[in-house]
Amino acid sequence: MRAKKRAVVAMSGGVDSSVTAALMQQRGYDVLGVTMQLNGGREEQMILDAQAVCERLGIPHEVLDLRQVFRTEVIDPFLAAYLQGETPNPCVICNEKIKFGALWRGARALQAERFATGHYAQLEERDGRVALVRGADPNKDQSYFLSRIERDLLPRVRFPLGDTTKAETRAIAEDLGLEVAAKKDSQDICFIRNESYVDFLEREVEGGLQPGAIRHVDGRELGQHHGIHRYTRGQRRGLGLSAPEPLYVTDLQPGEVIVGPKEALMAKGLVTRGAHWLRWPTAPEVFTAEVKYRYRSPAVAAEVRLKDEGFEVIFAEPVRAIAPGQLAVVYLGDEVAGSGWIEGVLR
After folding, report:
1. How far is it, in rounded angstroms, from Cα 111 to Cα 217?
2. Which of 31, 71, 187, 284 has the lowest CB atom count within 10 Å?
3. How far is CA 19 from CA 9, 103, 167, 178, 181, in A?
4. What 3 state SS string does the chain have?
5. How far apart are CA 144 and CA 338, in angstroms?
6. In this predicted model, what pLDDT tens digit does every residue of 228-280 receive, in sequence order?
C-alpha cells in the first residue's frame, strides 16, 4: 500500500489553520500540526488551542521555537524601519522569512513533502508553472501577504481555503466540532499584545524615540513632535497645530514630520527596492499591470518600469498617501507577478 505524503500544517490555534489541517487530512495526507513559538512565552493559549484541535483530529502536534530568528528577521527590522520614517509591514516579512522560511525548513527536517497554511489565496497550474492567484473571496484575499514566497516553493505549498469564504470556513469547523469555530480573528500584529504601538516602540527602541520638528512641505517649521512613530501618513487629527487650512501628514523623515494640504498627499507613482518576481513580466522593461501599494487599498491600473533591483510604478490616476516601507504588489490579471518594497514616492 502506498504511503501517505506527509504535510506540515502551520497551526496558530485559530479557525483558519485548524480547518486547513482538517482539509489536508481529508485529502489523504499524513498531517503534522506545527505551531511557531515566536514571542517569548506569549502564545500559551494559541499552543493549547492548536494542541486541542490536533487531538480532536487525531494528528500529532509539535511546537517549533523560532524566537531568536523571529527577533532578528522581523522585530528588529520593524523597529529600524520606524526610526527611518517608514511604515513597515511585519506580516509580509514574517511570511517570507519565518513561515515560508524557517518553518518550512523545519518541516523539511520532519520529512514533509507539502506545507499548508490557512491563507486565503489560490495556486493554479498555468503554462507549466504554479501561479499564485487571488483568493476567491475578495474580502479575505491574502495574496498580497504571500508575494515574497520563493517561486520554487510554490509547487509544495497548499492553501486549502483559497476557494472558500470565511463563513464557509467557520461552517466547516462547526461541522467538525472544533471548539475554535467561533474564535475571533486576531486583528493586531502578533508581537504587540496588551499595549499600543506607541508603548511597544518606546519600550523596545534603545535610547527612546526622539522629538523633533514638524515642518510644512514648503520648509517652514510649524511646531515640535514627540516622536515620528506617533504619526502616520494621511493623518489629520492630533497634530497640535494651528493653521488657516487643514493640514495632513504627507511624509515622515528621520526626526521630522512633514505636513501639508490635502493635495500634497497625492502621488503619481512610486519607486521600489528588492523586487521579487514570481512571474517574469512579458515585456522586457515596461508593461501595464495593476498594483496594490498597501493591503487595504484596491489594485490600481499602472505602468510598471523595471529598474535595476526594483521597479518604478506610474499610476493611471494619482493615488493618496503612499507609505515607504510598505509593499507594492504587481498583479497581471488575478495573478501575483511580483512585489517590491516602496522606498520613494513620485509626485
Report:
1. 56
2. 187
3. 10, 19, 12, 9, 9
4. CCCCCEEEEECCCCHHHHHHHHHHHHCCCEEEEEEEECCCCCCHHHHHHHHHHHHHHCCCEEEEECHHHHHHHHHHHHHHHHHCCCCCCHHHHHHHHHHHHHHHHHHHHCCCCEEECCCCEEEEEECCEEEEEECCCCCCCCHHHHCCCCHHHHHHEECCCCCCCHHHHHHHHHHHCCHHHHCCCCCCCCCCCCCCHHHHHHHHCCCCCCCEEEEECCCCEEEEECCHHHCCCCCCCCCCCCCCCCCEEEEEECCEEEEECHHHHEEEEEEEEEEEECCCCCCCCEEEEEEECCCCCCCEEEEEEEECCEEEEEEEEEEECCCECEEEEEEECCEEEEEEEEEEEEC
5. 10
6. 989 999 999 989 898 889 999 999 998 899 999 999 999 999 999 999 999 87
Active site residues: 94, 190
Cα–Cα distances in angstroms (integers) from residue 331 to residues 70, 141, 164, 165, 307, in the given order = 29, 13, 21, 21, 18
What's the grid cell of residue 170? 467557520
Among all chains, which residue has been given the C-alpha cell 493640514?
Answer: 247
Model confidence pLDDT, tens digit, residues 101-127 = 999 998 888 889 999 999 999 999 998
Lookup: cell for 97? 522569512
Burial classification of residue 228, based on how many CB atoms lie within 10 Å of its CB (0-12 exposed, 13-18 middle, 19 or more buried): buried
**CA–CA gap between residue 176 and residue 19 (Å, rounded):** 9
Q: How far apart are CA 35 and CA 47, in angstroms?
A: 7
Residue 53: how many CB atoms within 10 A of its CB? 27
